[in-house]
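> run fold Proton-coupled amino acid transporter 1
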Amino acid sequence: MADSTTSIPTSKEKSNSVFTLNDFNSRTQLTEKAQLGDEYNPADHRDQVNGQTTGGALAHLLKSSLGTGILAMPMAFYNGGLLFGMIATLVVGFLCTHCVQILVKTSQDICKEIRVPALSYAETAEKVFENGPKRLRSWSNFAKQFVDGGLMGTYFAAACVYMVFIATSFHDVINYDTGLKWDVRIYIAIIVIPCLLIGQIRNLKWLVPFSAMANIFIVVTFVIVLYYLFSEPLVFEDKPLIAKASQLPLYFATVIFAMEGIGVVMPVENTMKNPQRFLGCPGVLNTAMIVVVSLYAVIGFLGYARYGSDVLGSITLNLKEGVPLADTAKLLMAVAILFTYGLQFYIPNEILWKKISHKFNEQHHNRTQILLRTGIILISGGVAAAIPNLEPFISLVGAIFFSLLGIFAPSVCETVYLWPDRLGWCKWKLYKNIFLAAFSICALIAGSTASIHEIIKMYTE
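> ok
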């Protein structure tokens, strides 16, 4: 992937002239340079041998959204209410899908303008500012560092959540069935071992089989969960249609955490053989999000109706203890999340390695990566052991990181890229993006405040 100092020859150009990305100081210059040769198509310059198929991209995108988040949806409905939760889930799902669409569309458009095959999320933010309005160009490096820092924080924190979920599932099943009295922190320490192995996989293509198996396990788990949801009559009368106002921030924080797979989007799109199939109708994105939002709404609504105020951070933890079918669901879901750990861990490590790889001798890169990944996983295990409670952890991660990266940053990038004369009739896209940015900031402040209060309350009690 080209950076701002890489020399790139124009595609099919008739002369031998060479230019750099730093030559692109304005959109006018970009247009003039593009006219010198044929229209640049980023897909023609991607790796067609090792690239991902459309099916592989769909599997990764589904798996990035169908993790611990969907199991937390009944808890989200508890904090939202039956009616409010259903309507708001559909609305938030639409907003998240739209934000992914505008991010990918902006990235694809800027790739054509600066004539590069692909850009990461952070590089997209950087190039949008770098080639945007003159007053904002000095902010290009900050935009890149902001996105990179946010992505690393997001997915390292989410990896901690995954460890807690896996350990808690094994803890509940093994302790009950064997009579052991092991603390959940012991299971976290054990889970670190397979995470150390999976975390060494450095190619998205090699993670496709893990994502495929994880999706199968998740489907089986959902079938078992639905069986238990309908095993007894669902009770709706004692469930509020709208929860207390003080609970709503936790609802939004949990749902945003559950739905947002923003960090996986650009790596998946960048490695596709046919990136034009990512957007559009049906497209990889729309197909994945229709499935995801539908499942989230159904599981959240029925799970809350079934367990009410007793619902836990993962609905599988509400299933009957000591029953083989329920134990199977818990263990299958734990293994599915374990298989997903590699995909979750891939994103922040790719970002971090690009930032520091130049500081190490190339001959020692392999050894350095092994040590780096091992150290980060061990630190993640320590954080998970320090906060082995799912509910407030999920809400806090969703409120802080996913609100900023999933909604705020894409809306800002699109606005800067389209400024000033491509914002639509009466600049409606500007007002739309202002609304999205305001919504994300409100979710950030209210959600993080409520989550921190819950964590303090949990430990003081």
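The first strand starts at residue 7 and ends at 9.
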